[in-house]
Amino acid sequence: MSVERPSLPQGPYLVAGLGRAGGAAVEALLSCPAAERVLAWDGARDARVRSVARRLRGRGVDVRLGGDGLDALAAAGSAATVVKSPGIALDVPVLQRAREQGVCVLDELELGWRLARGPIVGVTGTNGKSTTSKLIAAVLKAAGESVELAGNTEFGAPLSAAGASGWIVCEVSSFQLEGSPSFLPDIAVFTNLTPEHLTRHLTMERYGAAKRRMFVRRERAAPLAVVNLDDPFGRDLARDVTGAGGRVLSYGFAGGADIHVERVEWNMREAWLSLRTPDGPVRCATRIPGAHNASNTAAAFAVGHSLGMSAQTIARALADVDGPPGRWELITDSQPFDVLVDYAHTPDGIRQLLQTVRSAVSAREGARVLTVFGAVGLRDAEKARESGRLARALSDHLILTTGSAPGDPRILRLAELRRAARAGGSMEVVLDRRAAIRRAIEAARPGDVVATLGLGALQRITLDAAGTRAPHDDRQAVREILLG
Prior knowledge:
single chain, alpha/beta, Rossmann fold, UDP-N-acetylmuramoyl-L-alanine:D-glutamate ligase, Protein-Tyrosine Phosphatase, Chain A, 6-stranded mixed β-sheet, 17 helices
């Protein structure tokens, strides 16, 4: 099943961006005997970046900060390879100039893949990547495999920092894929495609094309593609993979899926799935409620099935898995209502999350859903309209507050959401996020659910157009407020 990986391109190497991924790329290159000279550049000059720069300079790395990076590219001389961080778009001056000069440009993901020793499961899609990755890792561990989580995630290392010689389950973003000319995982998993990142990709066609790169490249395909048959893009992807000679295992609620979710029921703390599989019917319990998480579970089941695991072994592994940090994370302190923290910040994510909550509490007489939400990510007018509309329509009371939205003053982002949230339950605006969470908790009655959306396990928020960051963790804030 293993995919042949190209060797590391010739150096010297210039790493563009010194966040988590860029920092990991520098460390990986410094540890590589073939990398004789490593340079690094970051456009920022804040305290964190300066600290990273001091450390790397102490190890012999030529680090340039500020500006557009062209001086760093010139300093590299005959640099043959630029390794970019996922957050850096391909049209920035340093990458444009590099390509004009014939310099090889790779994303950190591609670097990590070329250096990795073990087989890789790549998981991509708009929503559900983190949960699906964690479920797949649990299934692989149940098969007796050594497993490491990695990639574009808050709870795993960047791929170039993954040291496992066993399996690596790698969460993969479209930002990474657009800069990866060869990356094909041994197993490629697709969750769904809904509007997101259009400020970068501009159209859904370009967004989908970036995702497709993980499955099909010209005449080559990933050896195995695990694809959501409920998603229109997934159905097209399955045909493309088959046409390029790859194997497809499908999953979903669609009747023709190889791993077919026939039924799912849930409460706030667990779910029960009835699956039809090539090995026959299977009943599977999980700790992550919702129809969307039933799909994520089916994807992980498909990976296990592809490796020859028995249905019952897979089901037992899935029953013991909690969601990733900040994904359907219930915070309890003996209060008579539920407080839920979740990363949902796209229209589709908000819709699925709040519909799941409403279904879970439908049997509770008089139960209400109180939602705290603020804009996340770069400004996107359509995303804001749908997020605001759905958040209010599916809540009994909506509190709009600060999210984490670089590029604009938070007052403008809140006003944009408020204009969109015109129908549904009652609504108010509370600028300070911690105060908004406190207000929702203090208003909760027995049986209610307080849903705090948008940040999940993130531990910081970006407050304004200047990129000012402040420490904040929704989970910590909830616990402290509950403790009084």
